[in-house]
Amino acid sequence: MKNEASSSNRREESLVVDCGLWRSSCGYCKSSGGTIISYGLRAHSLTVNDYQDLLDRGWRRSGCFLYKPEMEMTCCPSYTIRLKASDFVPSKEQRRVYRRMQRFLDATLEARKPMELADDQNASKHTGSSVNHLVSSSGNESFFFGNKWENKAEKFMPRLSNQIDKVVHTYIEVGNFLLEINFQMLRACKGHINFYSTDKSASLDRDVQIVALPEESGSGSQSSSAKKSSEHHQGQKRKLEIRLKRSSFDPEEYALYKRYQIKVHNDPPDRVTESSYRRFLVDTPLFNVSPPADGMVPPCGFGSFHQQYMIDGKLVAVGVVDVLPRCLSSKYLFWDPDYAFLSLGKYSALQEIGWVKENQAYCASLQYYYMGYYIHSCSKMRYKAAYYPSELLCPLRYQWVAFHLARPMLDKQKYVILSYYANLQDGESSQSCNPESLMNLQHDENGLEDSNDVFMGEDERVIEIESDSSDDELEPETSGLGSGAIDNGDLTNVLVGLRGSRLRYKDLQRAFGPTKRNYFETQLRSYQRVVGVELSERMVYSLG
């Protein structure tokens, strides 16, 4: 692990190497040229406090590489987005994701293969006029298929269950209140699909066990015991277990990641290598922080973690997260394609939000859930704002602005200095300030449910430095920063590392001649501009 290589003779400190500006291809607008422009740092080590402050200045990490989009120049401006967990208001769609998982755990919703999902979507385009709605004398809801579809009823049941759930919510009202009834499918018999109403108060907690694993002494030691799971029998309830473990290489996780990248992202098999996986999702520059006896740190501590989702002992999803003093930062999620119908991207986000709320009892400063970057110009990234009420980070003044205030501005132009609109009153926004008004953000332009889940967590594929590209495929930007981007800030207290020593620039500048001094000060000003004055005086700017 990279974060274990620090010297025992020196206190924990952040040590970074300046990589300057880089160009890379864009996976969002699919531009052919190097239209993503980011500032990069290579972190040899990083404290959790420094990384928290970097996040609040628009930075993210991919393995040990830190990067920050140059918002004025990049093709798809990426705004840091966060949510205060205690204020979270789940939408109907998000509650539906929970209920779907509950039905699966209760064995009233069976697993379907990805091909079956595709068949359902295609078939539903042609069968609308062939489905007749019936209500039996007992009040049960039924749907009748013509003889043509009778033998295929079973495969359509889960999708129809979801569709009926949506329809019922739109027209059943009692007084001034919406009657929320969740219809679940029992069985298909004689051409009918029968549904029943469930108790809204049913809790998922009784089927979910959350376990924090101790640090592992060897790769895959914890997960190997769960590799073999008994075959699930019809009607037998399933068990969901969520395990939190320190970031480390696990062969079972890597096998799932490879299958996910190939099946979901269509990556060529020869590109999904163990080394690229390690660089992307295992290596971390963050120091591990163990919980002290006096509290103020969550039981798991701070640092980089993998959150495993196990169903009946089988690994079905892995969330890669960083636990920091003020937030849980979601980095990436990969899952078993056979479980796509469970919307594991949305489900894991809800679990991570709940984790933040639960751990506030141990760490009062831990209040936020960071979802990475929000890219308004990319429809497949807009789902993040559906986690209400979210905030976007102003790219100039680093102030947080409510999304419902920022959205009208982003509808007009890609790059917006959001703090200009921070003083707007809620009533002045053209968007309704409630989670249901954001429901259209849950779907992409094709309106296909769950299609956005594949992007959950790792919007950091913007650069794809560690996951899909080697470093030499990225082009350093040599034209310099935009006009006026570099000011004449005070560099005297910038902390510089040279041959094992730590010096302030004021004590080092006499060692340079005029030409080298001008060049080095230009580099330091670029660095200070992107990390801020405080961090430039706290992190070590390494010169080797």
TrEMBL record:
<feature type="region of interest" description="Disordered">
    <location>
        <begin position="467"/>
        <end position="486"/>
    </location>
</feature>
<keyword id="KW-0833">Ubl conjugation pathway</keyword>
<feature type="domain" description="N-end rule aminoacyl transferase C-terminal">
    <location>
        <begin position="252"/>
        <end position="394"/>
    </location>
</feature>
<dbReference type="InterPro" id="IPR030700">
    <property type="entry name" value="N-end_Aminoacyl_Trfase"/>
</dbReference>
<feature type="compositionally biased region" description="Basic and acidic residues">
    <location>
        <begin position="228"/>
        <end position="242"/>
    </location>
</feature>
<comment type="similarity">
    <text>Belongs to the R-transferase family.</text>
</comment>
<comment type="function">
    <text>Involved in the post-translational conjugation of arginine to the N-terminal aspartate or glutamate of a protein. This arginylation is required for degradation of the protein via the ubiquitin pathway.</text>
</comment>
<dbReference type="Pfam" id="PF04377">
    <property type="entry name" value="ATE_C"/>
</dbReference>
<keyword id="KW-0012">Acyltransferase</keyword>
<feature type="compositionally biased region" description="Low complexity">
    <location>
        <begin position="216"/>
        <end position="227"/>
    </location>
</feature>
<protein>
    <recommendedName>
        <fullName>Arginyl-tRNA--protein transferase</fullName>
        <ecNumber>2.3.2.8</ecNumber>
    </recommendedName>
</protein>
<feature type="compositionally biased region" description="Acidic residues">
    <location>
        <begin position="467"/>
        <end position="476"/>
    </location>
</feature>
<feature type="region of interest" description="Disordered">
    <location>
        <begin position="215"/>
        <end position="242"/>
    </location>
</feature>
<dbReference type="GO" id="GO:0004057">
    <property type="term" value="F:arginyl-tRNA--protein transferase activity"/>
</dbReference>
<dbReference type="GO" id="GO:0005737">
    <property type="term" value="C:cytoplasm"/>
</dbReference>
<dbReference type="InterPro" id="IPR016181">
    <property type="entry name" value="Acyl_CoA_acyltransferase"/>
</dbReference>
<dbReference type="InterPro" id="IPR007471">
    <property type="entry name" value="N-end_Aminoacyl_Trfase_N"/>
</dbReference>
<dbReference type="InterPro" id="IPR017137">
    <property type="entry name" value="Arg-tRNA-P_Trfase_1_euk"/>
</dbReference>
<dbReference type="InterPro" id="IPR007472">
    <property type="entry name" value="N-end_Aminoacyl_Trfase_C"/>
</dbReference>
<dbReference type="Pfam" id="PF04376">
    <property type="entry name" value="ATE_N"/>
</dbReference>
<keyword id="KW-0808">Transferase</keyword>
<feature type="domain" description="N-end aminoacyl transferase N-terminal">
    <location>
        <begin position="24"/>
        <end position="96"/>
    </location>
</feature>
